[in-house]
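Students often ask why we bother encoding 3D structure as a string. The short answer is that it lets us treat folding as translation between two languages. Here is a chain of 159 residues written in the first language.
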Amino acid sequence: MEFAEPDTRIQVAAQAPADPLFDKQWALTSPIAGLNALQAWDSSLGRGILVAVVDTGSRPHPDLVDQEVSGYDFISSSSIAKDGDGRDDDPTDNGDGCAGARSSWHGTHVAGIIAAESGNAMGISGVAPGAKIVHARALGCGGGYSSDIADAIQWASGG
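And here it is in the second language, the structure alphabet:
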């Protein structure tokens, strides 16, 4: 008796990463309201994709150290920027809280949701852990001006 079967390419299916907070990331895994990330990661991890985050900038974070590329600070007001100058090539988040209010560090938070390194046994996994983040800082102490935000969007989109 002889048999024939197609010679198809087989690949290992994505497995849940060893990040301690992955099981709490319901948006990546919930079959009802989630992204079904494990199945999506079988097709793509986002490698080769550059995502601009127009927000408060970036703080050093171990889940993002290899995920970020050079960005820019578009805040024209030194008092809003809280960095002693206006626009420059340093998108570091100096805090958006004013007069003793707590800062949100929102730009770093958003960057982590998008591209936090996956499978490194710390923190969370990003939706696209193979993508790179470019920060376009446009928000600081108390927010920011729409003109700075518009310039950041234009720069981030290649204008």
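Translate back mentally: DSSP finds five helices and three strands in the chain. Keep this in mind for the problem set.
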